[in-house]
Design goal:
There is one protein chain. By secondary structure, this protein is α/β, with parallel strands linked by helices. The chain has a domain of 185 residues: Alpha-Beta Complex (2-enoyl-CoA Hydratase, Chain A, domain 1), CATH 3.90.226.10. Helices cover 40% and strands 16% of the residues. The protein is built from eight helices and eight strands. Strands 1, 2, 3, 4, 5, 6, 7 and 8 form an eight-stranded mixed β-sheet that branches. The longest helix has 25 residues. The radius of gyration is 22 Å and the shape is elongated. About 3% of the residues have low confidence.
Length: 267
Amino acid sequence: MRIPFISKPKPFVPHLRFEGVIGGGGRFSRGLSLAAVEPSLARAFKSGKAAAVAISINSPGGSPVQSRLIHDRIRALADEKKLPVLVFCEDLAASGGYMLALAGDEIYADVSSIVGSIGVVGASFGAHEAIAKLGVERRVYTAGKNKVRLDPFRPETEDDRAFVTRIQSAIHAGFIELVKARREGKLDAQTELFEGDVWTGQEAVGLGVIDGIGHARAVLRERFGDQVRIKDVPTAKTPLVKRLMGGGADAVVAALEERLAYARFGL
């Protein structure tokens, strides 16, 4: 009796792409959030035949809460499905973008990728002198003396600065703790890594911030063979043109803010 030839199934790797500013999202934003990426994550980890899950990241960061939520969801799914996660930093994986990268069991980047920014930043402006010169009287009514803390239309106080420092320090400490936990035994102990600096991919390898230099397709082919099937799992987002046309001035401002977030890193 002739036994039919049964070919060995090709390795299969779902591939997600996380791109843009990390935030709650909204009418004029394609911001990455857990709610936005959850369906794609569920699809990527659903297949029991996958050899791994690959994630490409291009993000300047954003909300520390949404960054941590996405990170934790990736790790929970990886542990549940017993699947390794390989992360590939593209142009930029900074601040919250690097926090997303930490969800990977292995992290790769291009030699010229910008990686790191393990810190916390906040920005505002002070316009109290400008409105005074214009003869504008601002009226704000509150219950609770701190409801107008950091109001840009009043002078900044020592209490305001102490408040910001306390909040940022707590968030920064949590970020540092996560980096140390996820990169345990890999970080360069001789270099200060937690002051908000960024590095090229080549530098990041030497510091232990990432594991190696490589692009998604090449690394996956090397790891799982030339016949590996890489299936892109789309993440829902609104095209920039549609956002600009549908949102008027608010949409333009949102798009400019996103552009400025990348420009901080020279991109």
